[in-house]
Amino acid sequence: MNVARQALTVARIEAGQGTPEEKARVMAWDRLCGMLSTLDSKVSVLLRFNAIVVAALAYVVVVRASDPFVTANATVKLMGLIVGHVSLLASVLSCGFAFPVINVEWEFFGGRLDRLADGEPEFDDAALQRVGDLVARRTRLYSRAWQFAVAGGTGFAILVALATIH
To answer: What pTM did the predictor assign?
Structure first.
């Protein structure tokens, strides 16, 4: 179903031309789309956080001229190196899990991912289930991305503490 036809179908149902079941389906559809929008906003902020952490860690860990552990003993240097690289990897993994959560309107680009082999899908329970599955999948991805971001940010904080304390 193309976007215009879907919008017209939903508008007719909301205007009272639909059954109670269709009205419930529209409400569920709106709720699921709201959840996707929330996930999209949250992952946008998470990716900004990861960008800051990755940039800072890449500068501290990869650029050797800025080594904060130049005067530290070998144990602190090794700990800093390990924590920095693990934190950088965790932040990059967080980005990897976050990118698939971003909402891409494929209809805008002229492609369709939800088109069935035997024609266009209807606005039915199966379409609602596909959106529900999409919400569940993106929620799991966001959760994993958030966990890696916390690990990367914590590692960065530890790295800064090590560099400050030594």
So the answer is: 0.78
